[in-house]
Every structure is written in structure tokens, then in C-alpha cells.
Write a structure and sequence with these properties.
Layout lengths: L1 E11 L2 E11 L4 E6 L5 H9 L6 E6 L2 E5 L4 E2 L2 H4 L1 E4 L11 H7 L8 H9 L15 H12 L6 E5 L7 H17 L3 E5 L3 H7 L2 E6 L2 E6 L1 H9 L3 E14 L2 E8 L2 E7 L1 H6 L5 E7 L9
Parallel strand pairs: 3-9, 3-10, 7-8, 8-9
Antiparallel strand pairs: 1-2, 1-4, 4-5, 5-6, 10-11, 12-13, 12-15, 13-14
Helix pairs in contact: 5-6
The protein binds adenosine-5'-triphosphate.
Pfam families: ABC_tran
Organism: Roseivirga pacifica
Protein name: Molybdate transport system ATP-binding protein
Length: 290
């Protein structure tokens, strides 16, 4: 269990912002932290990691105090034993994949964990390569593996997948889910991606202007909205054609083209390139797993 009760005055470009968070996170939870840019998400992770000192408050993990301003107690990042992965990989360019992992090993510790991680993250074919020769997704797999070399109990992830394209990102999410379970981690991940949050999170937290404004399971946070009986998507108008008294709109939705019938008065208002919402009562939709 992580119990975090911290305050810190941060300096944003709009002036001072009070980060004031009182959070309990259960052992083994996968928590996704969302919220607007500048809300304080990274600062929160950095405080937990011991990289940023709160002005006041306490941080306790499994009945051990990591930080207590009143008692002048402040464990160093090394003493906190957590794994941290940022968006920018931060691998040593002059070392191979294996050497990058070995460098994170404590002196005298068994190298079994390196083999286990190389196996689990499917890095076998890449272990002799240098980071410069790897793709973004491969680099991030190495960074994830490296964060686990010291077998931390807590893993902090600051938008680790946001620089990756959607397909690689989905694969990395599977790796994350796998290591979270295999290493019995408590994982706290900053992400702006709703799909990612729903896929991975036991609990989602939203920060706004330094405070927690929402907290709950994805079903609790999105459940009501999803049960409205309607669905909608946005698309870009590609063409508007008249066929047999019908106006057919071709829309680009993601990488697909979707055709919908549109009312004549509405069709007259539209031109190619316009952004539109298509909404419908979800009366009898066809659902296929992707
Ligand atoms: N050490 C610090 N001292 C004072 N202010 C800071 C410090 N670090 C960050 N800030 C400020 O705190 C605010 C919140 O920053 P933070 O990086 O935590 O936000 P964020 O929610 O992670 O944003 P983003 O999604 O853009 O990464 C910013 O305005 C930033 O300038």
C-alpha cells in the first residue's frame, strides 16, 4: 500500500500552482494517471521517486516511511527501490542491450534476472546490438527491462509509450500487462490515452491544477457515459454525392472510409475537408472484436 499525502507549490507559466494530493494506492494495483498538460502528473511521480521534494507531507510505502517533512526523513531514490521509465528511453548509446541491463545490476547480484528479462521481453535477438540500431518500440522494451533489473516492487511510467505508433504501442501495452503481473508490481503510469487506460488500469486518477478531481475504476469513470444508448464518431468529409435521391457522404474515419446517408439540407452545408460528428442510437449495431 502506498500512502501519499503531499503538498508543493509549483511554478507554472501562469504563476504559482498548489500540488495538493492525498492518495492511497493498493499493493498490486495498476493505476493510470491522466489530466491536462501541466496538471502536476510528472511532479507527482517524481515526488514518489525521491527526485522532487514536497514542501510538506508524508509518503509511506508498506508501513515504511519514505518521506516525512516534520521528521526530516527523506529516503534517496536508490533507497526507495522503484523502477522508473520515461518517454525518452534514456539508454546508454555506447553499450549493447545486454550491457545496458547489466549496468543496472547491483554489484555482486546474480545475472539470472538479466536472462529472465531478455527472455520475457523477447530481446534475445537484440542483446548484442547498440540502442542506435533499434526501433523506438525495441528501445522502450529495453528501457522497461532495465527498470526491472533490481526487481522493484513499484514501477513508475511517465508516458512511456506516447512516442510510439499505435500498433507498436498496443504490443508494448501487452508487455506492460505481462510484467506487471509476473513481477507482482504496483504500477503507476501517466498516460493521455483513454484506450490504454481502459486496457491496463485497475484504477484511473485524473489530476487537474494540482488536485485529484476523479478517481475510480475505468468502468466507474466511463460507465455512465458508455451506457447512454448512443454512439458517435468523428470523421472528415471526403466527397458528397447524390444517388437516387439520396445524399451519400464519404467520410475518412481513422484510416477507413465510411459511407453514410445524409439529409439534403445538411448535405448542402458540407464541403470536403469539413469535420463532422456521426451519432446514432445504438439500436442494433454489429460488433466485431478487433
Ligand atoms: N521542480 C519544480 N519546481 C517548481 N515548479 C515545477 C517544478 N517541476 C515542474 N514544475 C511546474 O509544475 C507544473 C506541473 O508540471 P508537471 O510536469 O508535473 O505537469 P504534467 O501534468 O506532467 O504535464 P505534461 O502532461 O505536460 O507532462 C508545470 O507548470 C511546471 O513548470
Amino acid at each position: 500500500m502506498i500512502e501519499l499525502k503531499v503538498r508543493k507549490t509549483l511554478l507554472s507559466h501562469q504563476g504559482k500552482m498548489e500540488l495538493d494530493v492525498d492518495l492511497q494506492i493498493g499493493k498490486g494495483d495498476f493505476v493510470v494517471v491522466g489530466g491536462k498538460s501541466g496538471a502536476g502528473k510528472t511532479s507527482l511521480l517524481r515526488m514518489l521517486a525521491g527526485l522532487l521534494n514536497p514542501d510538506s507531507g508524508t509518503i509511506k510505502v508498506a508501513d515504511k516511511t519514505w518521506f516525512d517533512k516534520g521528521q526530516k526523513l527523506n529516503l534517496s531514490p536508490q533507497q526507495r527501490q522503484l523502477g522508473f521509465v520515461f518517454q525518452d528511453f534514456a539508454l546508454f548509446p555506447n553499450m549493447t542491450v545486454r550491457q545496458n541491463l547489466e549496468y543496472a545490476l547491483k554489484k555482486g547480484a546474480s545475472t539470472n534476472i538479466i536472462d529472465e528479462l531478455i527472455d520475457m521481453m523477447e530481446l534475445g535477438e537484440l542483446e548484442s546490438r547498440k540502442p542506435d540500431t533499434l526501433s523506438g518500440g525495441q528501445k522502450q522494451r529495453v528501457a522497461l527491462a532495465r527498470s526491472l533489473v533490481q526487481k522493484p516492487k513499484i514501477l513508475l511510467l511517465d508516458e512511456p509509450l506516447s512516442a510510439l505508433d499505435p500498433e507498436i504501442r498496443a504490443k508494448l501495452q501487452d508487455y506492460l500487462s505481462k510484467i506487471h503481473k509476473a513481477f507482482e508490481l504496483t504500477t503507476i503510469m501517466v498516460s493521455h490515452d483513454i484506450t490504454e487506460a481502459i486496457k491496463l488500469a485497475d484504477r484511473m486518477i485524473e489530476l487537474d491544477n494540482g488536485s485529484v478531481t476523479k478517481s475510480g475504476t475505468p468502468a466507474q469513470l466511463f460507465g455512465d457515459a458508455k451506457l447512454s444508448g448512443k454512439f458517435q464518431f468523428t470523421g472528415i468529409v471526403l466527397t458528397i454525392e447524390s444517388q437516387d435521391f439520396l445524399n451519400i457522404l464519404s467520410l475518412v474515419v481513422g484510416k477507413e472510409v465510411v459511407r453514410v446517408v445524409v439529409d439534403e439540407s445538411e448535405a448542402k452545408k458540407l464541403s470536403p475537408g469539413d469535420k463532422v460528428i456521426v451519432a446514432s442510437k445504438a439500436f442494433n449495431p454489429i460488433i466485431k472484436k478487433l
